[in-house]
Amino acid sequence: MSILVLGGAGYIGSHAVYQLIDQNDRVVVVDSLETGHCQAVHPDAAYYQGDIRDKQFLDDVFSKENIDAVLHFSANSLVGESMQEPLKYFSNNVYGTQVLLETMKEHNVNRIVFSSTAATYGEPDAVPITEDMPTKPESTYGETKLTMEKMMKWCAIAYGIKYVSLRYFNVAGARKTGEIGEDHQPETHLIPIVLQTALEQRKALTIFGEDYNTEDGTCIRDYIHVEDLIDAHLLALSYLENGGESEIFNLGSNQGFSVKQIIDTARKVTGRSIPAVPGERRPGDPSVLIASADKAKRILGWEPSRTSIEEIIEDAWNWHRNHPHGYDGGVEA
Ligand SMILES: NC(=O)c1ccc[n+]([C@@H]2O[C@H](COP(=O)([O-])OP(=O)(O)OC[C@H]3O[C@@H](n4cnc5c(N)ncnc54)[C@H](O)[C@@H]3O)[C@@H](O)[C@H]2O)c1
Ligand SMILES: O=c1ccn([C@@H]2O[C@H](COP(=O)(O)OP(=O)(O)O[C@H]3O[C@H](CO)[C@H](O)[C@H](O)[C@H]3O)[C@@H](O)[C@H]2O)c(=O)[nH]1
């Protein structure tokens, strides 16, 4: 199998590349490096630097490489930025996907697995969230991902391009063997911010709201280990290869942890004090997001195996401790 990974220099995409190469697939990476890192690209992958909106560039890649299926991770994905610059998000996420689908159609590539998000649901009516619940995104980011899903739906009907859309909840952790991990600039996600505070790169982290209607007053999220998440992508590729119909699946671990529980667990894992101060709510944050991933278990046979929050934070800590300045800072002795 030859798999094209779009966004393979990013956090999640780079983990997909490593796991595909672990199972002896041939991997072609396309990445613009807008937010990714060339050091994150597996040395055995064929790598093309460019933007998926550049039709000529994408055509060249599809012409040179014999692509069987596409894993599509490339996107802009900062919720706050998407509210300030909505057109940037429509261009990269929606128009980029349009160019990709045109290219796939022209080159007769008819299988795609792509990154969607819990942000397609907005504030849920109930948890755990199942795929048939209403989608009411509260950010441009969520709206663009929902639009991508709808584009896929109509392209499946018209052109026979089969898709699996995976709605991720909170992705965290790092590859156990330590070569790659999470390095976002700027970092907005809770667990890396907590660990940067453990490393004293930040004086304290701010807890965004302590007055939510939850047990300790802080928001609850469903954290999923990045390697479990990629296992689901590999199963989704096999599912499509075996003739499976287009589908949407939630990916989470069916359990929620509050912001304070994450900080406390990180204190135990790192043995550091990790100062945290209360702050204002972050606009647009739902109080509780927990996935029902039963459909992915039932249809894809997916069973996450790294579900302990200690293990997720330990693997993230292993990466951050050894790469305190991410990819560009080199490895600390
Ligand atoms: N991190 C999470 O918790 C989370 C949750 C839900 C969904 N997602 C989705 O998962 C995907 C990957 O997220 P991530 O955290 O790895 O992000 P990331 O920013 O680390 O990776 C995205 C990669 O895509 C590349 N890219 C962006 N636009 C491109 C373009 N037009 N052409 C070519 N390459 C381009 C970037 O350079 C980067 O390497 C995204 O689609 C994101 O929306 C992430
Ligand atoms: O410095 C921080 C950072 C985060 N938080 C809190 O920690 C929780 C988790 O926040 P993240 O930013 O790590 O994650 P989100 O739940 O906001 O976002 C995740 O889920 C979204 C869908 O709702 C998108 O898919 C997004 O890409 C994905 O990272 C939230 O309650 C947030 O308010 C803090 O208290 N302080």
From TrEMBL:
<dbReference type="InterPro" id="IPR001509">
    <property type="entry name" value="Epimerase_deHydtase"/>
</dbReference>
<dbReference type="GO" id="GO:0033499">
    <property type="term" value="P:galactose catabolic process via UDP-galactose, Leloir pathway"/>
</dbReference>
<dbReference type="InterPro" id="IPR005886">
    <property type="entry name" value="UDP_G4E"/>
</dbReference>
<protein>
    <recommendedName>
        <fullName>UDP-glucose 4-epimerase</fullName>
        <ecNumber>5.1.3.2</ecNumber>
    </recommendedName>
</protein>
<keyword id="KW-0520">NAD</keyword>
<keyword id="KW-0413">Isomerase</keyword>
<dbReference type="InterPro" id="IPR036291">
    <property type="entry name" value="NAD(P)-bd_dom_sf"/>
</dbReference>
<dbReference type="GO" id="GO:0003978">
    <property type="term" value="F:UDP-glucose 4-epimerase activity"/>
</dbReference>
<dbReference type="Pfam" id="PF01370">
    <property type="entry name" value="Epimerase"/>
</dbReference>
<feature type="domain" description="NAD-dependent epimerase/dehydratase">
    <location>
        <begin position="3"/>
        <end position="252"/>
    </location>
</feature>
<keyword id="KW-0299">Galactose metabolism</keyword>
<keyword id="KW-0119">Carbohydrate metabolism</keyword>
<comment type="pathway">
    <text>Carbohydrate metabolism; galactose metabolism.</text>
</comment>
<comment type="similarity">
    <text>Belongs to the NAD(P)-dependent epimerase/dehydratase family.</text>
</comment>
<comment type="subunit">
    <text>Homodimer.</text>
</comment>
